Amino acid sequence: MRVHISLPVTDLAKSQAFYSSLFGVPASKVKTGYLNFRLNEPAIHLALMQQETAMPHPQQHFGIELPDSEVFAAWEQRGMKAEGARAIEPEPNANCCYARANKLWLTDPDGHRWELWHRTGEFDGIDEDRKQSASAGS
């Protein structure tokens, strides 16, 4: 069983480089105007389709919850080096959505935002000033 996500991208080669760097594996299938990554960990089937405009919504994001701090650290290392990332934002000790977590936010070449996180505890609230929560744990 896998979650399937299909994203429009404007430059398939740049997106392929970004996601190959992030996932640590090459694309599973590469065709003209299309490629995909079929991963077991995490169980995801990510399809990328070449289009003139990607049109990401500024509030939209996708996330991958990682099972423990070691796995998060490995993904964080790859994420920090992800080829073609437009933005990389570490967010340690974040308080959000009734949980405390270490997070890394990445933006792919087309502006699609990805949240990688590892839950570290509970939080009694939906959200908090993220900058404040990150500095509170330091």
**Total of domains:** 1
| CATH architecture name | Roll
Averaged pLDDT, please?
A: 87
State the major sheet: 4 strands, mixed
Quaternary status? single chain
CATH topology: 2,3-Dihydroxybiphenyl 1,2-Dioxygenase, domain 1
What's a concise summary of this model?
The chain has 138 residues and is an alpha/beta fold. The protein contains three helices and eight strands; from the N terminus they run βαββββαβββα. Strands 1-4-3-2 form a four-stranded mixed sheet, with helices on one face. Strands 5-8-7-6 form a four-stranded mixed sheet.
Walkthrough of the structure:
The protein has a single domain (3-136), classed as 2,3-Dihydroxybiphenyl 1,2-Dioxygenase, domain 1 (Roll). Residues 130-138 have low confidence and may be disordered. The longest helix has 12 residues, at 12-23. The chain is α/β, with parallel strands linked by helices and 138 residues long. It is 22% helix and 41% strand.
Task: Set out the fold topology.
Elements: E1 3-9, H1 12-23, E2 29-31, E3 34-39, E4 44-50, E5 61-65, H2 69-80, E6 87-96, E7 99-107, E8 113-122, H3 130-136
Keywords:
138 residues; alpha/beta; 2,3-Dihydroxybiphenyl 1,2-Dioxygenase, domain 1; 4-stranded mixed beta sheet; 3 helices
